[in-house]
Request: fold
Amino acid sequence: MQPLANVTPLNPLARAGAIEVRNVSQVFKTANQDVVALSDVSLDIRPGRFVVLVGPSGCGKSTLLMMMAGLQRPGSGTIRINGAPIEKPDPNRVGVVFQEASLFPWLTAEDNVEFPLALRGVAKTERRAKAEEALKLVGLEGFGKRHPHELSGGMKQRVSIARGLVQDPPVLLMDEPFAALDEQTRMTMGDELLRIWAATGKTVVFVTHSLTEAVYLADEVVVMSARPGRIVDTLQVQLPRPRTYDMLSGDTFGALRDRIWRHIRKSA
Amino acid sequence: MTLVPAHGLALKLARLAVILAIIAAWEAASRTGLVNPRLLPSASETLAMLVNLLGRAAVRNDLGVTAMEVLSAFALAVPLGCLLGFLIAENRYSADVVKPLLFFAFSIPKSIFLPMFILVFGVGFAQKVGFGFFSTIFIVIMSTTTAVESVRVEYLTVARSYAATPAQTAFRVYLPAMLPVLLEALRIAMIFNLTGVILAEMYASRDGFGHQIATWGENFQMPQLLAGVVLIAVIAIAFNELIRWVETRCSHWRT
Reply:
């Protein structure tokens, strides 16, 4: 007989890739004052959605992302992924893509991608096969033997994405992954990311400073304000997919970007 | 004629030419009597003496004693220094407390402690190894703290986000990230170590190559003394170059 605890609940927030943020607050103590980094933030992200967090510097968007990754504990409140609380990093549930300089420069691209698997003691041949598959997915087939210093900025971030995906977690968290790239590469990488997202069906939470990038990529844009860090608006981006460059100059796109900008101007 | 930019082979040849010129000048100065040959035996005479010395069992025995002392002191000071340096640097508080103290200790000339080592250990193997260890450990600790600080915090965050254990973080992130700086530390540590051991041998000893050099000096045996100097110089340079070669092989990613 099945014990009751093993029966999967029908709650959609318990499905693979669902993220549930409940009443999360965080206060940082500095020498002369307490800074409220996050104030009572609640957010539900359905599986497979592409959600972008935007807001001025200090609004706590990166802090919130690091909490989803289990790299920081909320001062109060809970974060659940696949219905279970996340209290420490769990690479089976969450892959993280950081800013540019996060690849290990002493490892080749494929060894970087294999790193999460090597930590878990996966056998060499299996590791290599999975790394090749992940590199192929991000469009870097044949570049596995190169070291990071032999790759362009965009290619390095492709390797980072491959590393985030290699364990096939339902959630991919991205902390300003394209911030260090030039404008053209950034646009190309956005399209590439959307292609990868469509191919894998991951839930993506993406932090950025760029409003254009936010609207271009997202199903849903979560706008945050600073001091205290909280959610001030959530926008549904109804633009059809695949997104194209022409949409950038359209009325829908402009209206959404203006709405975000007004929020940010108010709080900055 | 204009000079073309020098590269690889040309530079090496130029360096070799400088060395040969120095040896030629040395030979000429001694032979022509420009410098008293009793004070400066010629290069060829020194080289012949070196071959002669290496043929003597007593000299080879002294070299063996010194090598044992140097390697023992090195084998003790390097791992212990690395471990201490790592523990100090890994914790912000201990780094803040201890690092200035290390600079204090490092700034003291170690040779003034030599008489104390003789009083504690007597004249022998332990005194040499102890003093070699003492001469080396501070630079190893200090270099290791620098090496730990050279590890980017992003690398540690990546390791943490993939749930690396502390041992995995140490061996898969800290060690490779620190390796170029650590190898350089190893190289410099050997210079301090060799200096310490040989100094201890010259100061008070019954055997070892440093003791030989001191004796030749006191007895005004210039060919032997110069041959000994050349030998130690060659060994020290060879070790240094070996580590530098490993360094360049291990740090190709550092650009």
Observations:
- The first helix of chain A runs from residue 61 to 68.
- The two ends of chain A are 58 Å apart (CA to CA).
- Strands of chain A lie at 19-29, 34-45, 50-54, 76-81, 84-85, 94-97, 171-175, 203-207, 220-225, 230-236.
